[in-house]
Amino acid sequence: MSVPDYMQCAEDHQTVVVVVQPMGIVPEDQFFRIYKRIASVSQVSIRDSQRVLFIRFRHHYPPENNEWGDFQTHRKVVGLISVTSCTTAKEWPQTSDRFHGQKEVFGSTLYDSRLLVFGLQGEVAEQQRTDVAFYPSYDDCPDVEKRVEDFVESIFIVLESKRLDRATDKSGDKIQMLCVPFEKKDFVGLDTDSRHYKKRCQGRMRKHVGDLCLQAGMLQDALVHYHMAVELLRSVNDFLWLGAALEGLCSASVIFHYPGGTAGKSGARKPSVSSAADAGKRHRPGALTSSGISADTSAEIGRAKNCLSQEDIIEKYKEAISYYGKYKSAGVIELEACIKAVRVLAIQKRAMEASEFLQNAVYINLGQLSEEEKIQRYSVLSELYELIGFQRKSAFFKRVAAMQCVAPTIPEPGWKACYKLLLETLPGYSLSLDPKDFSKGTHRGWAAVQLRLLHELVYASRRMGNPGLSVRHLSFLLQTMLDFLSDQEKKEVTQSLENYTSKCPGGMEVISLPDGLKLSPVPFTKLPIVRSVSLLNLPVSLRPHKVKGLLGQGLSSASPFIYSPITMHSRGDERSKKIDFQWVQGDVCEVQLMVYNPMPFELRVENMGLLTSGVDFESLPAALSLPAESGLYPVTLVGVPRTAGNITINGYHTSVFGVSSDCLLEGLVGVKSSGCMVEVVPSLPRLQLCTSLPRSAHLSSEDLSTSVSLQLFNGETQQLTITLENIGTETLNTLELTSKTLSTKDGISVTGLPVSSPLRQVLKPRTENKPVGSDASKNEFNHVKTLEAVLTFKYSGGAGQVEGYYRELSLGVRVDVEPSVFFTRVSTLPATSTRQCHLLLDVFNSTEHELTLSAKNNQDLVLHASECQRMAIQVDKLDFDSMPVTDHDALRQATVRQQEEKRQQVQGGLINSTLDIHWTISSIQRHGEASVEGVLNQLILEHLQLAPLQWDVVVNGKPCDCDVIADCRVGDAVPLEVKLTNRSKSAVGPFSLTIVPFQDYQNGVQNYDLQDAVTFIGSNTFYIGTVNPTENSVCVGALLFLYTGDFYLNIKFQDDSTARDLPPAWFCLPSVHIKAQEPVEL
Amino acid sequence: FLICVAIRANYPLYIRSVPTQGELKFHYTVHTSLDVVEEKISGVGKALADQRELYLGLLYPTEDYKVYGYVTNSKVKFVIVVDSSNTSLRDNEIRSMFRKLHNSFTDVMCNPFYNPGDPIQSKAFDSIVSTMMVQAC
Questions:
Q1: Model confidence pLDDT, tens digit, residues A62-85
Q2: What is the torsional sign of CA A847, A852, A855, A856?
Q3: A611: helix, coil or strand?
Q4: B27 contacts on A by Cβ (under 8 Å)
Q5: Nearest Cα residue to A429 out of B113, B34, B82
Q6: Predicted local distance difference test score (pLDDT) of residue A276
Q7: Strand A677-681 and strand A578-584: pairing?
Q8: DSSP conformation class of B71
Q9: Alpha carbons A880 and A942: distance in angstroms, whole number
Q10: Trs120/TRAPPC9 third Ig-like domain: from which residue to which, for each copy (chain A) (predicted)?
Q11: What is the mean pLDDT of chain A?
C-alpha cells in the first residue's frame, strides 16, 4: 500500500468505502454533478434499527489500498456505483459487459454494485433491475439519492450478515488467517496447527470483527472485540495487527468521545440520532442484532470499562504507531495513524504532543513518492500544523509544498498553485502585503525569511505570466525590505524591477487576485526618502498683502477674545495647520522637499509632482537625479493653483524604476512639516520692473524685489528710468508709489524728490556737511558714503483686488557717494553795491581728478586733485522773505524746530540756486553741483540777506547804486529821489536824511567843500515820516551842478535816537556817483 | 554548528551563526521553533508552573540539530541551536549558556542609549556570544 489518504481521521474507521466511477465517455462536469448528489448520501439510518451506516464515496481508489481491506475494513471497497452514458439500446449489452468488467477490479471485496445509465430510453430501460437504474438524461434523474440509499441499505445487510457470520465463528473450526499483502509469503510453510498460529488467527479475526462492528454501528461491541484482540495479539507478539487493534480501540473511543468528528469543519457530521455517544443507551436489540452477540452485554460492559479515556487514546496511538514503525511496508498505515492522532490531539488542544506526532510523520519514509504526492504530503503537514496552532511550521511546510509544485523534475511546473500556496504562507511569516503595515517605524521581523518569500512570490508571479503582479510584489519588497538589502541586492532588485516595468509599468491601482485577495498599491516612500516638506512663500514681489482696515481683518480667529493666555494646543496634527502666508491663483507656487537617496547608485526620479486637494492645482512635474547615498537634497516641486480657496498638500507622486507611486504625507514617518494647508487668494496682476541701470546682485534687505546700485560723486545727478510691465493675466487697476530713505549712521540722507510722472523719479543725493573748521577733519570727507532708498509700488487689480489684496514691488536704490568738492571755509565781503556782496569760498577738490568749478556769472576755476583754492563770487543779496510760502498745513503741524530747519533748508536751496556752483570732471565726463548749504552759518546768512529797509536812490530818473554813474548836464536841475520801502514787520521811522556832496580825488583826499560847485534846489535835508510795513515813502529834492566833474553824494542819517534801535545794516544807503558834463550844444 | 538568537515580540534582535553559510536555513529553523516556544509558554501559564524556571529545554530535535529555548520573565526568548552530533553539550551546559546570554542581554538593556526593540549591536554581547561559540565548537 503506497498511497496514503492524508485526509483520514479516526472516525473514518466507522465508514465503508463506495467507489463511484464513470464508465465509458461521461462528460466530466456531468459526472461530478452526479457524484456530488451521490456523495450527499454520506450517512444512512438503517430501517428498523437505530444504527447508521457511514459511507465514504471515492471516485478514485487505488486497488492496492483495497488489498489492505482485511487489515482495516474501512479500507475495503464494498460498493461500486458506475455512471455511464448510453444512448441506444444497441450499446446496452456492451455497456452491461463493461460494468461487469469494472466490478472485477474490486471484485473480491464488493458487497454490492449499481449501474446508473443515462440517456437510454425505450424497451431496454423498461426492464426492472435492482442493480441498474436508467435515466433519460443527466438532468432528469430525481431519485438518484433514493437509489443510493437503497444501495447503502443493501450494503448494510451484507455487512451485518458478515459481521454476524464472523462473530459467531468462535467454534473450534479452523479460523481463516487474515493477513496483509506483504505477509503472505511469510506464512508459506508455517505450521498452521500450532497454538501460537491459532491464537494469531483468533486475534486477527477478533480485530476484524471489531472493525465490522464499528462499521455496522455497534460501537460497544467493537470496543469489546478490540480489547479481546489486543490481549490475544499481545500474547503472540503479532505487532502489526496489535497496532491495528490498538488503533481500532482508539478510533472507537474517539468516535465515542468526539461525536462531532475530528476532521474539522469539512468533515463535520450531520447530527444523527444514534451518534456514538449515546449509542449504548439507545441501543435496542433490533431484528438483526438480537440474533448476534448480545448487544445488551456490550452495553453493560460499555463505556466505563472498554472505552479508553482521553489520555489513554493518545497513549494507545503512540503504542500503535510504535508497532507500525517496526514494519517498513506499513509506512502508510503509520503515517495515517499519526495524522489521525494529530487530529485528535488538536481537538484536545495538546499542541506539543501533536507536534511530536507530526514530527514523527515527517520522518516516515514512504519510499519514492511522486511529485504530486509530495505536494499533497507537505500541504497536509502544513494544514495539520495550522490545526494545532503552529503557524510558522505550517507556513514552512506550505512553502515547501509550493516549491515542490515547481520542482525542476516536474515537466509542467504549476506556478499558479505555487503562487497560491506561497500567498497562504504569508500570515505564518507575519507578512502582510499591505505596505501600510510597514509604515510604522523600522520594520521588525524575520527579514531574511520574509525576503526569501517575497523573492519567491515575485518569481512565481512572473512565471505565472502576470507581470503586473510581480511588479507589485517586487515594489513591495523594495519598499519594505530596503533596510535589509545589501548594496548588491539593491542593485539586482532594482534592475529586475526595471526589466519588469519595461513590459508592464507599475501603478497605484489595487490588484485583485481571483481568490479575492487584494494587493494594495505600494508607493515608494523610501525612494527617495523625504525628510521634510515645507511650503514656500511667494517671492517678496509677488506676495499678496491684505488691505488693512477691511472688514474681517484680524477677526479671523475663532476666539471671541482679543487676547487669551490659553493657547490652543493643536498637538499632533501639525500638518493640518494653516500656514500664515498666501499663495495666489495663477502664480507658480513652490513646495520644497528635503529628500535623500538611500540607494548605492544614482536614483532617477521622474514625473515628481504634488498631490493636492481643495483647489484645482496644476502640478508641474519635475525629474530629478539623486546621486548615490546622497545627503539631504532639496527638491522644489512647483505647480499653479487654478482656483482660489484653501489648498492642502497631501503628498507627492513619483515615478521610479517605472513604478509610479502616490506618496501621502500622512503615511510617512519622520517627515517634518510646518503645515500643509495654505490659502490661495484670487489672482492678482503681476508687475515686472526694469530699470535703466543694471541690477545689482546685492540686496541690502530681503524685502526688496530689485535693487540697483550706483556710484556717484557728491552733487552728481543720475536719472533712473523705471519701466513697469504687467506680465500677469489680470488688468492692473491701481498703482501707488511711495518712497522711503534708509538713514545711515553718518546722518546722511537721500531725499526723494517729488515724482514728476508716475513712472519717473529723480533721486538726488545731498550731503549735509558739517561746517568744517580745520583741515584735520578732511579725512572724513574721503569716506565713501552709502545712501539707500526704497521705492515701493503697491498695485492691485482683478479678482484679488475685490478681495482686498494688493501686491508690493520694491526697488532698492543704493548709491555710493564719493566726495567731490568741499567748501572748507566760507566768508563774505561787502561788495560795492548794497544789494550785493562777495562770497569767499575755500574749495577743496577731494577727487583724484582735475576738476573745473564754475559758478553763475563767474569764471571757471580749475582745481587739481586734492587742491584747495579760494573762490570769490559776487552775489546779489537775497530776499528770503519773498521765498515761496510753504504749505500752511505742514507748517502748522511741524514744531518750531522743524520749522526752523525747514526754513534753513529752503534758504540753503535758494542760496544754492543763486550761486549755482557746478563742478565738472572732464576726464571722466562727470559733472554735478556743489552745495554750500552745510557751510553757511548765521553770520553769513545775515550778510547775504537783503536789509528789510530798502533804499532806492534815483538821480535824474535813473536808479543809482555803487557802480552806476548817473550822467547830468551842468546847469540842469538834477532831480534826486530817495525812496524807502519797508519790508520789515514793524513800522520804522521817522528818519531825517542829509545829503552831502563830495569829490573823491582817488588819492585818499575827499573834498567836501563844494558850495561853489553844487547847489541844492531846496533843502539838502529830507524828512521821512513813519513808514508802515510793506509801504514806502518817497522824498524828492533837486541838485544843480555848476561845473563839470565827478561828484559823489553821501546820504547821511541825522543822528536820530529811533534809528539806533535798528541794526546799522538796515541803513545801508548806496553812495551816488554823478558825472556832470558840459551841456550839449544844440 | 551553533546559532544564538535573542528574540523579542517574535522578531529577532540578534542572530548569529557559525559557520555563516546556509544561514537562511537556520533562520527557518529558529523561526519555526517559535511555535514550540509559544506553545510552551502558554502551557506554563496554564499549569502555573514554577515561574522561576526560565529554561524551556529541548524545543524539538531534528535530524541534524537540537534546538533549545529559554524565556525570560519579560518574554524575551533565547534560542540556541546546536549540532545533534555535539554530545559535549549537556543540558547543564546549555542552561549555563542561556544564563550567560541572559545576563549579557540584561546589560545591553541597561544601556541608556539602547532603544528597546532595535537590533542588538553591543560589542560586549557579541563577544560573549563569540566565546560561547568557541567553547561549544
A1: 877 788 888 888 888 888 888 888
A2: negative
A3: strand
A4: 446, 448-449
A5: B34
A6: 36
A7: parallel
A8: E
A9: 10
A10: 830-944
A11: 76
d(CA A315, nearest CA chain B) in Å: 20
DSSP H or E segment with residue A379: helix A371-387
Compare CB distances from A446 to B11, B63, B118 and report the shortest one's residue.
Answer: B11
Question: Minimal CA–CA distance to A733: which of A798, A793, A664?
Answer: A798
Residue A571 has pLDDT above 50, yes or no: no
CA gap B81, B96 in Å, rounded: 15
| 3-state helix/strand/coil string of A568-604 | CCCCCCCCCCEEEEEEECCCCEEEEEEEECCCCCCEE
Q: What is the mean pLDDT of residues A259-273?
A: 53
* CA A300 – CA A1051 distance, rounded (Å): 172
From chain A, pick out residues whose CB is under 8 angstroms from the CB of B31. Answer: 392, 396, 429, 446, 449
Q: Identify the pLDDT of residue A779.
A: 37
Question: What does each C-alpha distance from A813 to A695, A698, A759 come to in angstroms?
Answer: 10, 11, 15
This model of the complex carries an ipTM of 0.86
C-alpha cell of residue A832:
560795492
Spatial CA neighbour of A620 closest among A604, A633, A636, A605: A636
Task: Answer yes or no: are the C-beta atoms of A535 and A527 closer than 8 Å.
Answer: no
**Residue A932, CA atoms < 13 Å, CB-side half-sphere:** 26
Q: What is the pLDDT of residue A563?
A: 67
Nearest alpha carbon to residue A161 among A209, A222, A126 = A209
Residue where the block lists cell 506464512: A187
Distance between B23 CA and the closest CA of chain A, angstroms: 9
pLDDT the model gives residue A12: 85
Helix (H, G, I), strand (E, B) or coil at A1049: strand
Percent of chain A scored above 70 by pLDDT? 79
Which residue in this structure is represented by grid cell 440520532? A273
Return the higher-pLDDT residue of A107 and A94: A94
Q: What is the pLDDT of residues A543-555, one digit of tens each?
A: 888 876 544 444 4
Q: Coil, strand or helix: which one is B79?
A: strand
Q: What DSSP state is assigned to residue A507?
A: -
A285-342: pLDDT as tens digits = 333 333 333 344 444 444 556 777 888 888 888 888 888 888 888 888 888 888 888 8
User: Residue A764: what pLDDT?
Assistant: 39
For A399, which residue in chain B has the nearest alpha carbon?
B28
Distances (CA, A) of A490 to A507, A637, A655, A819, B23: 21, 27, 17, 68, 20
CA distance A327 to A379: 25
> A240-264 burial, b for 16+ CB within 10 Å, e for fewer?
bbbbbbbbbbbbbbbbbbbbebbbe
Q: Of all helices (H) and strands (E), which one includes residue A457?
A: helix A447-463
Residue A750 has pLDDT above 80, yes or no: no
Report the pLDDT value the prediction gives residue A1062, as an integer from 0 to 100: 64
CB–CB contact B11 A385 (8 Å): no
Q: Kindly state whether B24 is in contact with chain A, defined as any CB-CB distance less than 8 angstroms.
A: yes
**CA nearest neighbour of A318 among A288, A361, A277, A278:** A361
Neighbours of A189 (CB within 10 A): 7
pLDDT tens digit string along A138-187? 888 788 888 888 888 888 888 888 888 877 765 556 677 777 777 777 77
Q: C-alpha angle B15/B21/B23, rounded to 5°?
A: 35
Among residues A75, A78, A65, A154, which one has the least CA distance to residue A109?
A78
> pLDDT value at position A439?
60
Q: Is the dihedral of CA A192, A196, A202, A207 positive or negative?
A: negative
pLDDT of A770 over the 50 cut: no
Q: Which residue has the cell 535813473?
A: A958
- Please, which contacts does A504-512 make with residues 24 or more away whose CB atoms are closer than 8 Å? A504/A467, A504/A468, A504/A471, A505/A471, A505/A658, A505/A659, A505/A660, A506/A468, A506/A471, A506/A472, A506/A475, A506/A658, A506/A659, A506/A660, A506/A661, A507/A659, A507/A660, A508/A660, A508/A661, A508/A662, A511/A468, A511/A469, A511/A472
